[in-house]
Amino acid sequence: MADKIPPVQLSKSQFNLVGRSVVTLDDVSAPQISYLLRKARYISDHLPEVSQAAAGKILATLFYEPSTRTRLSFETAMLRLGGHVIGFAGAQNASVSKGESIADTLKTVANYADVVAIRHPKEGAALVASKSVDIPVINAGDGGHMHPTQTLADLATLQSRFSRITDLTIGLCGDLTFGRTVHSLIETLCRFGNVKFVLISPKELKMPQYVLDRIKASQSCTYEEVTDLTAVIGDLDALYMTRVQKERFFNEDDYLRLRDTYILDAAKLKLAKPTMAVLHPLPRVNEIATEVDSDPRAAYFEQVKNGMLMRMALMSSVLGVKLPGFAEDDTKEVRA
Ligand code: NCD
Prior knowledge:
This protein is of the alpha/beta class. 37% of the residues lie in helices and 14% in strands. It has helices at 12-15, 30-45, 47-50, 69-80, 102-109, 125-132, 148-162, 180-192, 209-217, 229-232, 252-258, 266-269, 300-319; strands at residues 58-63, 84-89, 115-120, 137-142, 168-173, 195-200, 222-226, 238-241, 277-279. Helix 4 (69-80) links the parallel strand 1 and strand 2. Helix 2 (30-45) crosses helix 13 and helix 5 (102-109) crosses helix 6. It is globular. Bound molecules: N-carbamoyl-L-aspartate. Residues 69-70, 141, 147, 150, 180-181, 243, 245, 281-282 line the site of N-carbamoyl-L-aspartate.
């Protein structure tokens, strides 16, 4: 992770994320997001030094929906901070299959763990979870709604590629209706400003109105909605591809008809700027040909690494554990 993260002047209390639940990144101020970016970069450069910072702390991962990266990323983040992990993956083995409510599960788990990461197929589940207990609850994806820690990974990747997260033209392509990662990312970038969003989707999978309203309400961000990726790819600084979210479709035929609408391959990349970054939250299905992986513009495996580092930054912050050598309230390790 590289380069200029704007120096942040925060008072001690503004730094304080201790005990904070994160359901959306609106729960974290813009200066605190910059602080997390700086902290993640420090962690990246000082993994041995931080490896015992959260000794004795326990993360519970409550994953009611499939996941590879996000769950393993949270778990690795905690292990790399010296803490421990409990949890379940797949609701079928948990008491929810007996009819237990989210609130009751959380009230139970809060006796065991210091921080919770929860993924659930229902929008709003993480909010319910966070209201049920006093320990920090981090939303690891709630239905088609939000995925704030993926956004932290995305921001870190944009920052490392462009040394900024503003003044960019960003294409978001694919399933903009159900793709929660793009909703979170737009919500957050709107707070930093000066982003032009190019929303590329079939008409059946357009961005929800509440996200468009968010862009309209921002001072300096704009959007256009298009259907043709090749017509706009040359204008983009970053292209964020998404998977068509099969599990959120009501009808298999619609999914089959729409899933291969956009496939980014080497031929399409020829039309793009040489510096364009290709992001994808993963998993991919068909939407990025594997031949793109070896192109220097492919940034999606960097995103994975950045996700772990940002989760380390976030969890250490909400747990209130100190990272040896990290200057909480000054900018001395910010490199120009
Ligand atoms: C995304 C998700 O779960 O929303 N994956 C992830 O967390 N990295 C994207 C997806 O599943 O398509």
